[in-house]
Structures are given as C-alpha cells and as structure tokens.
Amino acid sequence: MADRFLTDFELMVILAVLRARDDAYGVAIAREIEETGGRPVTHAAVYLALDRLTQHGLVTSRLGDPTPERGGRAKKLFSVTPSGLAAIRRTRRAFMALWKGIPELKGTPA
Amino acid sequence: MRKMPVLATALLLRFGPQDDSFVGDLAEEYSGGRSRAWYWRQVLAAIALASRRQIGAHPLRTAMAVATGWATLLLFFTPADRVAGGLAAWLWGWDRQTAYQTGVWWPFAITAWMVSYAGFIVSAAVVARVYRRHAGPMLMAYAASMLVAQVASAVTIEVLSRLWDNRVPVPHTLFYLVSVALPYHWRSGLVLAPATILAAGLLADGRSSLAGRGRLHLP
C-alpha cells in the first residue's frame, strides 16, 4: 500500500497516535482529536479508522497490561510505522498542493 | 469501580466490535466520570458502525440471513389464522362468524398480536442460531429489513385505505406482519417489532462471544 493517501479522519487519527506517543491507546487518541483537533468523535469511529490503518500496515498495535478501572481489560497501544509516516507526508503534500493558489483561502490560517 | 449500565454493556458485547480493548476504553471513560448518556451514545455508535462494516463486507451472507428470517416468519404465519382464532376461542369463547355480526374482534386482536410477536421471536432465534458466529450484524440487518417493511406496509395501507374506502385486502399471512403497525396498535410495531427481533436474537444466542472466550469482566 505504498501509494495510499489518508482520508481527513485517518490523518487526524494517525497524527493523534503520534502526539500521544507511548500512551497511544483509544482513550488518549480520542482525547487528542477532541481537545487538540477540536473535532468531536466516538470511540468506535476512532477504532474503525485504527483498524483500517492497521490493515494497511500504517500503524501497529500491541497489548498493554490489564487495569482494574478498565474492568480487567488490556489497553491496545498503537504506534505509527515507517509506511504510516510516509503516508502522512504524502497526504500533507497533496493537501498543500490543492490548498495553494485558491484566492478564497488566501491569508486563511492553516 | 462505577457499575457500567448493564443493558448497554450487554448490547455492546453482543452487537458491537468484538474487541476487548475497546470495551475496556469505554469502561475506563465511564469510571472516570462520563455520563450514562455518553456511554449509551458510544455503544449505539459502536453497534451501528460494527454492523455496517460486517454487512458491507459480507453482502451475500447478509442477504441470506435476511431471507432466512423472512422465510421463517412467513412460514410461521401460514397457519397463524387458525392458531390465533383457536386461541381466542379457547380463552374467551370467541367465534369468527359471530364476530362478523356482533363486531367483537378484541379477543382475536389480542391473540393475533401474540402470534405476530411469536413469529418475530421465532424468526430472530432462527437467524441467531443459523448465523451464530455473526449473529449481531445479521440480526441488525434482519431488524432493519423489518423496520423498512413495517414502515412501507403502514404507508401503503394508509394510502390504499383512503383510495378504497377503508377496505384493503391483505393476504392472511401478511396480516400478522402488518397489523402491528396499524393505528389500532398505535403503530407500536414500527419500534417493537425490530426491538423484539434484536432482543429475541440476543436471548436465543444466549452469550456474548467475548464471554464465551472467558474474557467478560462485567464489573
């Protein structure tokens, strides 16, 4: 999937994974998107996007330790693969190229 | 630990994404002070997304499951007239011929309602059993088809009854399907029929696949 572009939501999710660093699990990722990105999300939508990104080899996951406040269930911790980083850069280039030269958007903060 | 809403959690485990970590995330958020409404919203969104994904990924299986439900339902409704009439006669001494003269139909209306819902329950149980490994999304698809059928039949009968002066011939097998969506049942079937299918399917399957793997830790 070397040439895959990310959807806007996938881009938000994968950036949130990077921002959450070593603690990138569902709750932290959703919180990053809501608080930093300003977009309300459901956990299910985040998981679905993460599942898709995992299938395409753009993120990987591993299980953490179970904790009592999670009802004994383990966290699934995500990290971005080199292919994922490449997809982010590719998508950013595409967005920026489309962004340039639109008079209506001139001077609009990115 | 704060007790999670039992019904929402049961629905999530049965119909939601089969992912223990996801359930753990919701448990953590709820323990951290999120409201019941938030939890329900998350559960319903998870069920809708998981079902849509399964249905989209397996359209043939979904079509077969829906066809299985409808075939069972129509088969069940074939002798329904005799069953409902017989039940009304046994319980209240009701008689169809007399009813045409006296206009007393309430005993039959009650037993017909019972037969209708028995059909929904049995057909949902069959779908849940036949498609055991994918019962959640298949039941959702069957329930959705029921909702569409109920709405379509209610609208059609409404239109036809205006055109034909309140005389709409409905085949007896279909009567048990459409009657619950008619005004004299307050159109309750529009909500209750799909809800009954989901609840009956849930009970028929009798367990969550997570629970089946011994990973269910309901607080």
- Structurally, the number of domains of chain B stands at 1
Distance between the termini of chain A: 28 Å
Using the CA coordinates, give the radius of gyration of chain A.
16 Å
The protein's oligomeric status is heterodimer
Number of DSSP E strands of chain A: 2
Q: Could you name the CATH class of chain A?
A: Mainly Alpha
State the order of secondary-structure elements of chain A, H for helix, E for strand: HHHEEH
> Which spans of chain B of ≥5 residues are poorly predicted at pLDDT below 50?
208-219
Classification by helices and strands of chain A: alpha+beta
Number of strands of chain B: 0
Order of helices and strands of chain B: HHHHHHHHHHH
In angstroms, what is the radius of gyration of chain B? Answer: 20 Å
Strand order of the largest sheet of chain A: 1-2
- Parts with pLDDT < 50 across at least 5 consecutive residues of chain A: none
Number of helices of chain B: 11
Name the overall outline of chain B.
elongated
Task: Provide mean pLDDT of chain A, rounded.
Answer: 92
What report would you give on this structure?
The complex is a heterodimer of chains A (110) and B (219). Helix content of chain A is 49%, strand content 15%. Chain A is built from four helices and two strands; from the N terminus they run αααββα. The longest helix of chain A is centred in the C-terminal third of the chain and has 18 residues, at 82-99. Chain B has 219 residues and is mostly helical. Chain B has one domain. In chain B, helix 3 packs across helix 8 (135-163) and helix 4 (59-77) crosses helix 8. Classes of the chains: A alpha+beta (110), B mainly alpha (219). The interface between A and B is medium-sized, with 22 and 29 residues.
